[in-house]
Specification:
The complex is a heterodimer of chains A (682) and B (569). Chain A is of the alpha+beta class and 682 residues long. In chain A, 52% of the residues lie in helices and 17% in strands. Chain A is elongated and about 115 Å long. Chain B has 569 residues and is mostly helical. In chain B, 65% of the residues lie in helices and 2% in strands. In chain B, the strands form two sheets. In chain B, strands 1-2 form a two-stranded antiparallel ribbon. A two-stranded antiparallel sheet of chain B has the order 3-4. Chain B is globular, with a radius of gyration of 23 Å. The chains are: A alpha+beta (682), B mainly alpha (569). Chain A: One of its GO terms (cellular component) is plasma membrane. Chain A: This is Potassium-transporting ATPase ATP-binding subunit.
Chain lengths: 682, 569
């Protein structure tokens, strides 16, 4: 569903809204925030006046029609730029609207200090209030579960239909307003005031209402403004210089030249690129708290990732059966499978799966008593009707159990156990009655595709550091398997902050993902912190991005989007500046040819007439904006490669392409409009 | 052609050791002259009360530079006004008019050396020595000091300390400018350049007329004129006069003299960057210096080729009336130099912003004259007195910004992130130059006072005006001549342009370096934009040309370009 939404650039509603938006944005007070387009608007006003009073600056009346055409093209240019911005905003608004639907006013059951229930509107809930929510009811606002376990449908926010479990204490205690409890009940302490909930903030972020210019955007804007100033100097001084040389330039022509030269293409699309970048992040179901955060992603040098959940599945899955000396492998597998028949844990299930994969039949037995795994015994097992007692569990627990009932510890057990631990796995020892049969090698499995992803990151110069609570041996094995650059074993939350600070002292930009409360300080310290929506409120508050799907690997995509945003800006700037060469070759000869016929040599495109040349350049300048809207929205195609290769590629496409394209396009426009101009007598 | 190639090849061989020496002077490393010069310097520091341990941030450094320059401006102005006094004044030259004095002191203090007077008739020997030659040393030293401070800022070994202006200023004069000038002066005297205090000699020529033969401390001026990329001649006709530049050997000595230090600055920069990076690789230019040197070299060679080809093509109008153009356009050129050495000299003097001339630029073919004009509009093809490097780095920052975005990272140069503040200053710096040239040219052609100076109306007249202001703004100082420029209008406007063109740029550039040096270093990764690659060098050259073309193309097309097409059309 998400995919299809992403591919469709424009829906009918967005189109209509955007056209309206384009006109609303004509307000000069709004336009002045975008100085490049503001200059175009001022140019439009000047030529508009000249339509009515063509001889205002001493020109002659014959230019009225020409003035009208110029002002229409300028008007359209401004509209196109506004339209681009409106489309970008519109896509965000559409998304916000669907979020808003979930933000209906609901009734909440408020509990007072004595435990009495009163029904209030969710808008009246304040921070610290305690409410009770039962199955089928909407959670009125963001909060923390203080009592109860329930499954919650968060599809309204995440789009993920499978309900998630929320319970008090731990890392799964945070709930979001607008989600629905589907089973049991929850007692919730409200953690945000009305109008300030996570959903509210998300809506305003997605709408782009609270958008601030990012640092690079500000720097680029400075460059564009200075280019505009340079061209204004060029044009203003050209008038007297031209006059000295016997060339009298009409004001409309000077305005047209100004508009052609100032970087309108990038100026018109700049804010759209920013908004669309944020929007792309949103479409990945990641909410960025600011554009700055997304942009910072493009600069990330070091990425700190939790092992469990991010790099590995976190579940330990059976990978191998290792019988001790004197025991047949089939005996071990059979016992292991029996012990797992009644074991619902991933370890148990995977043991069965592995057995089946190795070609063993699932044993048919009847159980007398089932022992579930507990933290005290650290083993599980089953007593069969035929009296056989099968256990599996932590190696020392089983050894202890065997010794107690008078069994013998095989001499090579330790060797197997150590071997498994060395490989980063967890050994589970299996015994039948008083006989130890062997070891199940449980392996923490690296998610598929991780190695390739880290490779991609390395290619663009990002170092990955894996954090894990495992011992150094285990950590090293997983790190080697996943292909991360570095790891921290036996990692405590403080260690993460230390690593971040250490990297930052070297001038690096650090990104990290986290979910638990104890990750909050590290998330805040990191330049880019991506919190999981399933995580605690503290973690989400500290982060500058929240992943609604709680998929920690998303950070990799966000990094690419951040880069893509910068590349799009840079490429369109290059394109915009490169375009000016062709525009000069269209307009300069057109302006001077009548007074100095020899300069006709510069008319290398052989444009039909001076007026046609100027208008063709101007029209090209206008229509290139909507033509590039799709590129601005989707972003320049990004593939990880070395910086030098990428530079060459983009310079060729947008630099060289930017020089050539307008030569061809202006010529085509000239061929089309010249007959029309002749028809209306120009 | 071969002549030019040999000259340039030898230049590369010369610039490397001098660049290395300059690097050692800038970084206070031991050099063979320390034994004597340390004593000299210490005496100067003690005498002037300079605290050599005082550290300066960019503001302090810039302020010291401007203040010292302002003081010298004032003293110079007074001397010119009272030069009629009979001190070293055998030719009894009178005091200088006030607007001309205003123009002259600014011109020499800003290292422009635009001359609205003729030296032999406008200055006493005392003025020649205490204003002209003195300022040729101090203005060049100011420029190089600013450049060294700027590079220290970029390299960023320290967070605020840019060095001490007074120390740098002194060391550049004692360790670089004086020794080099001494050698070059002697070489020039060997070639026949006069160095004396006698009055002019009146000779009775064989054709029966009397001729004044000018004398004076010419060789002393001539050497620093080129080494300090100053360019103001002892005589009105500058280095085309046989007494300033008698032979082809003196011509080559003068060429090398003006090329040596701007090129060395780039090497100094490259080595200072390498030193900070702790790079073990021994590289002649330093990897970052190489990019800049090559980019400058490409711009220089393109200019040179255009100038040479245009001059060789000659003048079709003269061809038509039966004057052979087989030797190329020899109008305004000296027979002893010919097209090759003239084209090389013209391109060099405007690239390295010296402003000395060995042929008259006014009589170059339109496209031949286009070259010096373009070089001054770019103002970064090696450039003079260290400032060329600073201007080039402004464009490097611009290129880094655009290219950096294109690879998806916040742009960084030499391990420092380029932010909004640096972009603002960079943009300002880029705007000043065209603003000064175009706005004042527009003013000149719309005012009667300005138009009066134009001796050759039409396209050529516009070229004269553009050239005069480009030369002033770039602190080049070469004259297109032909412009009657000793008038209140021209003296005052060019004075203002020279002043702003010099000090605004230096202060802003120091501010950029000051802002960058405070920033934290960013480690280099595979994702970092490499600025020492061929791709980057090409991008840099293209961006420089595109920016220059976009800014100056309309004006140029009404000047030299129109003239060219009319001439050949």
């Amino acid at each position: 569903m998400k995919q299809s939404k992403q591919n469709k650039l424009l829906t009918k509603e967005i189109l209509i809204d955007s056209i309206k938006g384009a006109f609303v944005k004509l307000n000069p007070l709004y336009m002045i925030k975008n100085p490049v387009m503001f200059v175009v608007e001022v140019g439009f006003l000047i030529t508009l006046i000249l339509c009515f009073v063509p001889d205002l600056f001493g020109g002659d009346n014959s230019l009225r029609v020409y003035n009208i055409i110029v002002s229409v093209v300028l008007f359209v240019t401004v509209l196109f730029a506004n339209f681009a911005e409106a489309v970008a905003e519109g896509r965000g608004k559409a998304q916000a609207a669907s979020l808003k639907k979930t933000q209906k006013d609901t009734k909440a059951r408020l509990l007072d200090a004595n435990g009495n229930e009163t029904i209030v509107s969710s808008n009246e809930l304040k921070k610290g209030d305690i409410v009770i929510v039962s199955a089928g009811e909407l959670i009125p606002n963001d909060g923390e579960v203080i009592e109860g376990v329930a499954s919650v449908d968060e599809s309204a926010i995440t789009g993920e239909s499978a309900p998630v479990v929320r319970e008090s204490g731990g890392d799964f205690c945070s709930v979001t307003g607008g989600t629905t409890v589907v089973s049991d009940y929850l007692k919730i302490r409200i953690t945000s005031d009305p109008g300030n909930s996570f959903l509210d903030r998300m809506i305003s972020l997605v709408e782009g209402a609270s958008r601030k210019k990012t640092p690079n955007e500000i720097a680029l804007n400075t460059l564009l403004v200075s280019l505009t100033i340079i061209f204004l100097i060029v044009i203003v001084t050209l008038y007297p210089i031209g006059k000295y040389s016997g060339v009298t330039l009409s004001i409309s022509t000077l305005v047209a030249l100004t508009v052609c030269l100032i970087p309108t293409t990038i100026g018109g699309l700049l804010s759209a690129i920013g908004i669309a970048g944020m929007d792309r992040v949103t479409r990945f179901n990641v909410i960025a708290m600011s554009g700055k955060a997304v942009e910072a992603c493009g600069d990330v040098d070091t990425m700190i990732l939790d092992k469990t959940g991010t790099i590995t599945f976190g579940n330990r899955l059976a990978a191998e059966f290792l019988p001790v000396e004197g025991i047949d492998k089939s005996e071990l597998v059979n016992a292991a499978m029996i012990s797992s028949l009644f074991d619902e844990t991933p370890e148990g299930k995977s043991t069965l799966d592995l057995g089946k994969k190795l070609g063993f039949e699932v044993p048919k037995v009847e159980s007398k008593e089932v022992f579930e795994f507990s933290a005290q015994t650290r083993m599980s097992g089953v007593d069969l009707v035929n009296g056989i007692k099968i256990r599996k569990g932590a190696s020392d627990a089983i050894s202890h159990y065997i010794q107690e009932i008078g069994g013998r510890i095989p001499s090579d057990l330790k060797k197997h156990v150590d071997e498994v631990a060395y490989l980063g796995g967890t050994p589970l020892t299996v015994c039948s009655d008083d006989k130890i049969l062997g070891v199940i090698y449980l392996k923490d499995t690296v998610k598929p595709g991780m190695k390739e992803r880290f490779e991609r990151l390395r290619a663009i110069g990002i170092k990955t550091i894996m954090c894990t609570g495992d011992n150094p041996l285990t950590a090293a094995t997983i790190a080697g398997e996943a292909g991360v650059d570095d790891f921290i074993a036996e990692c405590k939350p403080e260690d993460k902050i230390d690593v971040i600070k250490r990297e930052q002292d070297k001038g690096k930009i650090v990104a990290m993902t986290g979910d638990g409360t104890n990750d909050a300080p590290a998330l805040a310290q990191a330049n880019v912190g991506l919190a999981m929506n399933s995580g605690t409120t503290a973690a989400k508050e500290a982060a500058n991005m929240v992943d609604l799907d709680s998929d920690p690997t998303k950070i990799l995509e966000v990094v690419e989007i951040g880069k893509q945003m910068l590349i799009t800006r840079g490429s369109l700037t290059t394109f915009s500046i490169a375009n000016d060469i062709a525009k000069y070759f269209a307009i300069i000869p057109a302006m001077f040819m009548i007074a100095i016929p020899e300069l006709a040599v510069l008319n290398i495109m052989h444009l039909s007439s001076p007026l046609s040349a100027i208008l063709s350049a101007l029209i090209f300048n206008a229509i290139i904006i909507p033509c590039l809207i799709p590129l601005a929205m989707k972003g320049v195609k990004y593939r990880p490669m070395s910086s030098n290769k990428m530079l060459i590629r983009n310079l060729l496409i947008y630099g060289v392409g930017g020089v050539i394209t307008p030569f061809i396009a202006i010529k085509i426009i000239d061929v089309i409009i010249y007959p029309l101009l002749v028809m209306i007598g120009l | 052609m071969l002549q030019i190639a040999c000259t340039l090849f030898l230049y590369i061989l010369l610039v490397i050791p001098v660049g290395n020496y300059l690097y050692k002077v800038a970084t206070f490393k031991h050099t063979f002259m320390d034994r004597i010069l340390d004593k000299v310097d210490n005496t100067i520091y003690r005498f002037c009360g300079i605290d050599i341990h005082q550290e300066m941030d960019w503001k302090k450094y810039a302020f010291s530079l401007v203040l010292v320059n302002a003081l010298m401006l004032l003293i110079g102005f007074i001397i010119l006004r009272i030069q009629a006094l009979p001190i070293f004044n055998p030719n009894a030259i009178g005091g200088m008019e006030s607007t001309l004095s205003f123009n002259t002191v600014i011109s020499f203090m800003t290292n422009t050396n635009l001359q609205h007077y003729a030296g032999e008739s406008g200055l006493s020997y005392f003025s020649q020595m205490t204003v002209i030659i003195f300022m040729m040393f101090t203005s060049a030293a100011s420029g190089y000091a600013a450049c060294i401070a700027f590079v220290r800022g970029l390299v960023g070994k320290d967070k605020t300390n840019m060095g001490n202006f007074f120390v740098d200023f002194t060391r550049i004069i004692t360790r670089v400018l004086l020794p080099l000038s001494f050698i070059v002066s002697l070489l020039l005297v060997w070639q026949g350049v006069p160095q004396n205090f006698s009055g002019n000699i009146i000779a009775h020529t064989i054709s029966g007329v009397y001729q004044d033969i000018a004398m004076g401390p010419v060789a002393a001026l001539e050497s620093i004129k080129h080494i300090g990329t100053n360019g103001g001649g002892f005589f009105g006709a500058n280095s085309s006069v046989p007494f300033e530049n008698p032979t082809i050997i003196s011509n080559i000595i003068e060429l090398y003299s003006m090329m040596i230090l701007p090129g060395s600055c780039v090497i100094m920069f490259g080595k200072m960057v390498d030193e900070r990076k702790g790079s073990q690789k021994k590289s002649i230019f330093g990897s970052e210096g190489r990019t800049i040197f090559i980019a400058m070299g490409i711009l220089f060679l393109i200019s040179l080729a255009l100038c040479y080809v245009s001059e060789m093509a000659g003048n079709p109008s003269l061809q038509q009336i039966g004057l052979s153009q087989a030797m190329g356009n020899m109008e305004g050129k000296e027979m002893r130099f010919g097209i090759s050495q003239s084209a090389l000299f013209t391109t060099t003097t405007t690239s390295f912003t010296t402003g000395t001339v060995n042929n008259m630029h006014d009589t170059l073919t339109p496209m031949g004259g286009f070259v010096p004009l373009l070089n001054m509009m770019l103002n970064l093809v090696f450039g003079g007195k260290g400032v060329g490097l600073m201007n080039m780095i402004i464009y490097v920052i611009l290129t880094v910004f655009i290219c950096g975005l294109m690879i998806g990272r916040t742009p960084e140069y030499l391990g420092k992130k380029i932010g909004g503040k640096e972009m603002k200053l960079t943009a300002l710096c880029i705007i000043i130059h065209p603003l000064l040239i175009l706005a004042f040219s527009a003013l000149a052609v719309s005012m009667q006072a300005g138009l009066q100076g134009i001796s050759n109306p039409g396209f050529h007249g516009l070229t004269q005006v553009l050239y005069e202001f480009a030369s002033s703004a770039a602190n080049n100082g070469s004259g297109f001549e032909g412009l009657a420029d000793n008038s209140v209008f021209w003296n005052v406007t060019t004075g203002i342009v020279m002043f702003l063109g010099r000090y605004l740029a230096i202060v802003i550039q120091l501010a950029i370096a000051g802002s960058l040096m405070k920033k934290q270093f960013v480690p280099e990764t595979v994702g970092t934009l490499k600025t020492s690659t061929v791709t980057f060098t090409i991008a840099l050259v293209l961006i420089i040309y595109i920016f220059a073309a976009l800014t100056f193309f309309p004006a140029l097309s009404l000047g030299p370009i129109a003239e060219h097409f009319v001439l050949w059309g």
